[in-house]
Amino acid sequence: MYRFCLRTVVRLTKVDGSLVPVASAVLPRVLISSGTIKMAQNDEELKKRLTTLQYRVTQEHGTEPPFTGKYEKNKKEGTYKCIVCGTELFKSGHKYDSGSGWPSFYQPSGKEAVEERTDKSLGRSRTEVVCNKCKAHLGHVFNDGPAPTGERYCINSASLSFDQKKKDEL
Fold first, then answer.
1. Which whole number is the average pLDDT over 145-170?
2. pTM score of the predicted model
3. Is 154 noted as a catalytic residue in this protein?
4. CA gap 137, 82 in Å, rounded
5. Cα separations in angstroms, 144 against 1, 114, 117, 154
6. Mean pLDDT, range 77-99, rounded to an integer
7. What would you report as the CA-atom Rg of the chain, rounded to the nearest whole angstrom?
8. β-strand partners of 128
9. Coiled-coil segments, which residues (predicted)?
10. Is 61 exposed, middle or buried (CB count within 10 Å of its CB: 0-12, 13-18, 19+)?
């Protein structure tokens, strides 16, 4: 049996030249199955641990401005992890410069790393990418990427941490 605690995500949408708050989604905050908690951190804990930008991006489905993210130009070898729960999401070997202003990857580190969801928040359909473990918003995936997948995972730096490979691992 599953039980959900829900939260509403409110976005500002432009209507007749003015920004108005609109509830865009109701998302599960905590999933409990057979007594196992999948995501147990509450908003207050996250607000203390994350920066304002990290919280806005991961919990309120925000987007950092292009060309401002910490990892957009990162060329170091290592793994990119979820800033909220630490799950490995992407490998540096799958990263490329898409020119979009955000870190771009042609695939996640594994099939179970991310979840893809339909996002219609801007009046068009896109595919949102969230961490499969904690459901933190990461970015979006588009079908204009390079071989071998043809996909571009356009990810906010604010949703990531980076573990650089040690010299003995290179």
1. 91
2. 0.75
3. yes
4. 10
5. 40, 19, 18, 11
6. 98
7. 17
8. 117, 140
9. none
10. buried
Instruction: Output the six-digit token pair for 38.
Output: 């999948």
Phi, psi values for residue 79, rounded to 5°: -125, 145
From CA 151, how far away is CA 128, in angstroms rounded?
Answer: 13
Q: Tell me what pLDDT residue 16 has.
A: 58
Write the pLDDT tens digit of every residue in 39-77.
446 889 999 999 999 999 999 999 999 999 999 999 999
Pick the CATH number of 2-169 from 3.60.15.10, 2.40.128.50, 2.170.150.20, 3.40.1350.10: 2.170.150.20
Catalytic residue among 82, 131, 134, 154: 154
Question: Between the CA atoms of 6, 118, 132 and 65, what dihedral angle is there, to the nearest 10 degrees?
Answer: -90
